[in-house]
Every structure is written in C-alpha cells, then in structure tokens.
Design goal:
This protein has 583 residues and is an alpha/beta fold. It has 3 domains: 301 residues, Up-down Bundle (ABC transporter transmembrane region fold), CATH 1.20.1560.10; 149 residues, Rossmann fold (3-Layer(aba) Sandwich), CATH 3.40.50; 76 residues, Rossmann fold (3-Layer(aba) Sandwich), CATH 3.40.50. Helix content is 63%, strand content 10%. The protein is built from 22 helices and 10 strands. A 6-stranded mixed beta sheet has the order 6-7-8-3-9-10, with helices on both faces. The chain has a 4-stranded antiparallel beta sheet with strand order 2-1-4-5. A hairpin with a 2-residue loop joins strand 4 and strand 5. Helix 3 runs antiparallel to helix 4 and helix 10 packs antiparallel against helix 11. The chain is elongated, with a radius of gyration of 34 Å.
C-alpha cells in the first residue's frame, strides 16, 4: 500500500488508514500469543531438567495445570484475534462495497463494456487476505525476534544457528518475491482476460448456439486459457520450488539444533530439556518466514487488487453537494462535439453542434455506423467527449449532480436490460420508496398497464434474470415504462421499436405524444424515417458528422435529406401512418 498525501488519498487508502488502531491491537495480541507459545518449551525444560531429577509429583501436577491454563488462554486469544480479523474484513467490505460498485459501473460506462465485475472480485481478494491466516503470519514475523532472543539466552551457539536459518529463509523470501511477482502479475492478467472472454461468450450464447460456431469460440477461448494455464504452471513451479527449499532449510536447522544441543550436553554446557525447548523454539521462530515464502502469491495478489481499486478511484470525481441541483427544464446544446474511444485516432463523431429547446422532439436519422448511438451517449454524459461541451439548461453537464439529474431523464437504450426482480421495481428504477401511483402512471404512459394486469401477480410478477420470463417486445415495453417513470423532462429513445410488434409501436407513438403534451424534450434515434412526422426537429448523421439539421419541412425540401429519409412510396405510407395515429 502506498503512502499517499492527504490530497492523493482515495477512499481505499482512507479505509485502510482507519484500521490503524485495530491493527495495533492485533499486533499487541500477537505479542501476547507469541509469549504464551513459550509455555511448552519452558515446560519441557522444567520437566526434564528439574522434575525428573527431583521426583516431585506435586510440582509436576501444578506445573502441568499452569501450562494447561496458559494453553487455554492461548487458544482463546487466537480465536479472539481471528474473530477480530473477520470483523475487520467485514468492515472493510461494508465500507468500500458501495463506492467500488458505483465506480465499477462508471468504469464500465467509460470503457464501453457490457459488464465489469473485476473491481468486486478485487474487493473479495482484499477481504479474503484480511481474514486469512496469511496476514496473521506477517503480523507474527516481528515476534520471531522474541524466540531468537530466548535461543541466545539458552546458548549463543543455538541462537547463532537460528539467526543463520532465519537469514537464509529471508534471503529465499526476497528472491522468491523478485522472481515471482512478474509471473504472478502475468498470470493474473491472463486470468482476467480469460474471464472477460467468458463473460462476452455468455452474453452472446444464443447467437453462438444458433449459428453453430461454438467450437470456434471454444477454440479461441482455449488459446487464451492455455496462456492462463502456462502462466499459472510457471508461477506454481517457482512457488513450489521456493517452498520446498524453505522447508528443507528449516528441517536442516532443526536437525542441526538437536545435534548441536546434544554436543553441548556432552560438553556439560547444556541440558537435555534445553534440547527439546530449543527444537520447539527454532520451529516457532522460523515458521513465519517459511509460511511467508509460501504465501507470497497471496500477498502479491492482494497488492495488485489494492492498486487496481485505487486506480479506478483516483480519477473519479466525488459527489459534491455543491453540484447543480435545480430541476431540469430540458434545453440541450452541443458545441463542437468530437469523440474518439480510448487512444483511437479516428473520431466516431466529429464537429457536432446543435441546440434543442425545452419541449422539442428531435429525431436522429442516419445509416448504421453513422454515430447516432455514440452521439446519444455523449448527450447523456455516458461518454465524455474528446472535444467540445454539452450543456443542460445552459449549465455544463459536468456541473450537474448525476443522481439528481438522472431522476429527470428517461433513457431507453437499444438493448435494454431488466433486473432480476418484479415488474414494479423495474419500472420504479429499483426504488423501494416509489409510490404505486407513479409506477402505474409510467406503465400507462408506455401502454403496458393492461398487459401487466393480465399477468398472474400483476406488478409483483417476477420476471427472472434479465427479464427472461417476458418476450422481447414485453421487455422493451417495460423498459419504456422505466424510462417514462417520474415524468422525466428529457426522454431519450435509442431504436425503441426494435422488438416491438404493431401494438407495441402504437403504444410507443402514444407515449411520445404524451411526453410532448407535457413539454418533455424528446430525442428519438431510429432507422425508420416515417417517425419524422412526430418531430419538430430532424438531425441526420453521416460519417460521424451532421449532414442536416432543421425542421421536418426543411428536411423534405432538401434533396440530400430527402434521399436519405424516404423513398416516394415510404413517404406516402408515413403520411398514412401519421393520419391514422392522430385520430
């Protein structure tokens, strides 16, 4: 963990800094526990060097009872320390989970991914490390000095042997860290890449199955997985090598301790009881070093997870009560907007400028790949433009508080995803405090209220993961009701009729008309030019730029716009459709 200045500290740093006091108690408990570990070696020395020679049974019984009480206390303290670590791990998870979840969503949006659960996996890595015995091993390392001092008191030669053994294990640990860290990092990166591929395949499972290219996808994934296996194998071999070498040296030091103790007994400078005590103390003093070598991968994984979580928080602007909180009216202005993903050179949209007033209905047309959906995401603040600015009611979108602004926006993306819950909670945007009347109004606005009433449990119908128990058209209409919830000031619909049948399209048009009556600003992206009849402004995109912007009348009078909008027969059909709707 990095020592950051107060200005550079993320919520991750602050959470771990807040555990300083409890960590001091844990270190203190570790000292008491390690002192109690001296009970058994002292018992061995007393039994072999005094009680056997004196033949005192009373002394043996009393000493045994005292040591048993010490061991009971030792067990209680160890259990208490483990319980504290468990509570500490839960506290860290509770403190960080909400922020990490929010930033995982923001990172998903920023990276234009469908899902990004790696930050939550990293949080579990942090918690697992905190509650594991590995962290306690690192806490016990300094107390190995206690046993080393006792060994020097028993005999300088024994202490020197233990010091040499500890030095060898420390050296092995340093070598293990320097050689294993890049391998562990490579293994983790390969695993993350493999999991991303699995997530992507799972999202497209139906298409893969239907078109029969499962074998090709599996083969592609297997290549990635082989990289994971190879990196893991190399890392595991390195770890195993150093573990076994560490065990060998510890056993060798233990053997030499007994031999050296026996030699010193023969010389008359040591006692038989001290041999057993020395052997026990040697094992106890070297065990943390040996365990640390074997647990180094866990430590490296923890540090990498910690750093990844820090990085997703460094560039995230904290929510501020000073953000603009006035109700949204609905006027939007884009000035010289350009956007390119990541480090890409070519812009998806470039030099886009226009303004829509409160209550306007803007239809965005253009061929596939013209940049329509990207433009919508920039308008909504989902994507940050490379150049240019977006303002709502004359205020930069960056100045609005997102949670507040979102309540005034209704958004229906191309592939709307529903939550595994009831229809009621999905329409209410998962707000448990939403009133029933608001939910019903949204359903009525989307023209789905009658359909919901026909279901066995009505609004309390469980729709399953992703709305699997509903048809594609029903999911789309529930998502439309979600967008209409709360009577938003801005309604953005991106290809809303993709899964709709004729009844669904009629409901969609009625929903647009109802929004227009409330002076709601509507932005509608579509491939169907006949919907131009329901707009008062038209924007035609092409090659990432604006080809045309103006009124529907101007669009039809423009030769270029007319060619892109409709063929003659389509124009006739659209007029018929318009007249049939407005009855």
């Amino acid at each position: 963990m990095k020592n950051s200045s107060p200005n550079d500290q993320t919520i991750i740093d602050k959470a771990f800094l807040a555990t300083r006091v409890i960590r001091r108690y844990i270190v203190f408990l570790g000292g008491v526990i390690n002192l109690l570990y001296l009970a058994v070696p002292l018992y061995s020395m007393q039994v072999f060097d005094r009680i056997l020679s004196s033949g005192s049974i009373d002394t043996l019984v009393m000493l045994t009872l005292v040591i048993m009480l010490s061991l009971i206390l030792l067990g209680g303290l160890q259990f208490g320390r483990s319980l504290i670590m468990l509570k500490l791990g839960n506290w860290v998870e509770e403190k960080l989970s909400l922020s990490i979840f929010e930033n995982a969503i923001k990172q998903t949006v920023a990276l234009n991914r469908r899902s990004n659960n790696q930050p939550l996996r990293d949080l579990q890595t942090l918690k697992s490390f905190i509650v594991s015995s590995t962290l306690l091993t690192f806490f016990d390392l300094p107390w190995a000095l206690i046993f080393l001092i006792v060994l020097f008191i028993l005999h300088p030669y024994i202490g020197l042997l233990a010091l040499c053994g500890g030095g060898i294990l420390i050296t092995l640990g340093i070598i293990s860290e320097r050689t294993s860290r890049p391998l562990i990092q490579l293994s983790n990166e390969a695993f993350i890449k493999s999991m991303h591929q699995v997530d992507h395949v799972a999202r497209n499972a139906e298409a893969i199955y239907a078109m029969g290219f499962f074998s090709s996808v599996a083969s592609f994934w297997q290549k990635i997985n082989k990289q994971v296996q190879k990196a893991y194998e190399v890392t595991a071999l390195k770890q195993s090598y150093f573990n076994e070498v560490g065990k060998f040296f510890r056993m060798m030091v233990n053997l030499l301790t007994i031999g050296l103790g026996a030699y010193l007994v023969l010389k008359g400078t040591f006692s038989p009881g001290a041999i057993l005590a020395s052997s026990s103390l040697i094992n106890r003093s070297l065990a943390p070093f040996e365990t640390a070598i074997g647990s180094w991968k866990v430590w490296v994984n923890f540090m990498q997870a910690y750093e990844r979580l820090r990085q997703i928080h460094i560039n995230q602007e904290p929510l501020s009560v000073e953000k603009y909180l006035s109700p949204l009216k609905g006027s939007i202005e884009l000035e010289n907007i350009s956007y390119a993903p990541g480090n890409a050179v070519n812009h998806i949209i470039q030099g886009v400028s226009f303004k829509i007033d409160q209550g306007d209905t803007l239809i965005v047309l253009g061929a596939s790949g013209a940049g329509k959906s990207t433009l919508i995401k920039v308008i909504l603040g989902i994507l940050e433009p490379t150049f240019g600015s977006v303002t709502y009611d004359g205020i930069s979108i960056k100045e609005w508080r997102r949670e507040f602004l979102g309540k005034h926006i209704g958004y229906l993306p191309q592939d709307a995803e529903l939550f595994s819950s009831t229809i009621r909670f999905n329409i209410a945007r998962m707000n448990e405090e939403a009133s029933e009347s608001d939910v019903i109004k949204a359903a009525q606005s989307a023209g789905i209220e009658q359909l919901i009433r026909s279901l066995p449990n009505g609004y309390d119908t469980e729709i399953g993961e992703g709305g699997i128990r509903l048809s594609g058209g029903q999911r789309q209409r529930v998502a439309l009701a979600q967008a209409m919830f709360g009577m938003p000031s801005l309604l953005v619909l991106d290809e809303p009729n993709t899964y709709l049948d004729s009844d669904g399209e009629i409901s969609l048009i009625k929903a647009i008309q109802e929004a227009q009556k409330r002076k709601t600003t509507v932005i509608l992206v579509t491939h169907q030019p006949q919907l131009i009849n329901f707009a008062n402004k038209v924007l035609i995109m092409g090659a990432g730029g604006v080809i045309f912007y103006g009124s529907p009348e101007e669009a039809f009078s423009s030769n270029l716009a007319t060619q892109m909008l409709v063929q003659p027969e389509e124009k006739t059909n659209s007029s018929k459709m318009k007249s049939s709707i407005y009855v």
